[in-house]
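Expect chain and fold; see below:
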Amino acid sequence: MPSVKDKPSSKQLNNLVPFIPDGDFYFTKGVEAFRKTKFQSAIKWLQRALELSPKDPLYQCQLSVVYTEIGFFHSANELLMDVLDRNRDKYPDCYYLLANNYAHLGLLNEAKKHASFYLNVEPDGDFADEAEALLELLDIDEEDDEWELDNEDELLVSQEAIFRHMEYLEWETALPLIQEMMENFPDQPLAKHDYALALFEAGEREKALELELGLLEKNEDEILSHLNLAVFYHELGDKEKSEQFTKQLLNVYPMHEQQKLRIAVVLAKTGHYEVACNRFRQLQRSGVRSHPSFYRWFSRSSYMLGDHETADRLWNEGCRKHAPLMRESKPWELSKNMDENASIQ
């Protein structure tokens, strides 16, 4: 047994240097996890590194690579564009990474533009061979096909910009973009419904309601009209009319992930929290986890059902993946007016 004199003195204890992990520690752990294809662990470590150094371009680029690997192309591009906005000439590899993501998203002209720019500034860069291979794959000789591709890319770029603003509740910014899309692409039905929703959220409720009712009159089976009107009447306090539209959504199970998310969000907005949570759980392994609305409304629904632990976990995860969410109040702290006419199923 050691004697009293063998024990370290308080002076010796005070000389111990505590281990306080910094961003590089978490970054290294993230890279190790990525190399072992443990992508969720990699995301966790890299997000922790970014919490300590939010604007470190190396951390952002590495996290974007992980997001690309799991198909979260929008989230990856957000990080890469942020790096370029602040360090445009210092990180040219971002242009190739963007080109690769745009190719996956179907934005082929954007992919060609960014791959070409990368090769112009880095002809012998680390991704030169990959960029050349991508350009060969995207090369189209027919002028007519090229013109069609231009139109398609313009539409997809517009849709992506509108989607981002609506996901972050930037309705005033989204409105003129949607108007422009309706002028340039009058045959796109989604734009008209998005316009009605943005109008409603921006405060022009009567105009939005009139517009959506007009669209419903032209096509009574249009699911987007039912989605919007369920929310409009709910927030206007007309429970009976809201329920007429909501009930029809309960038996709708679309194939497209985006529509699945829209239905889950509307069910949450109209107070059908249990059904909404079931729909969100079915989406947990899909690409829509990269959308802020997934976290905003899944966490709210969980909280309203009494599962506060899940609500906090979801919201914190959403804030780590989407920094703008940190500027919002927690979804369950929204005005109680949203629930005055809710019918919890």
Notes: Residues 93 and 126 are 8 Å apart (CA to CA). Residues 21-140 form a domain with the Serine Threonine Protein Phosphatase 5, Tetratricopeptide repeat fold (CATH 1.25.40.10).
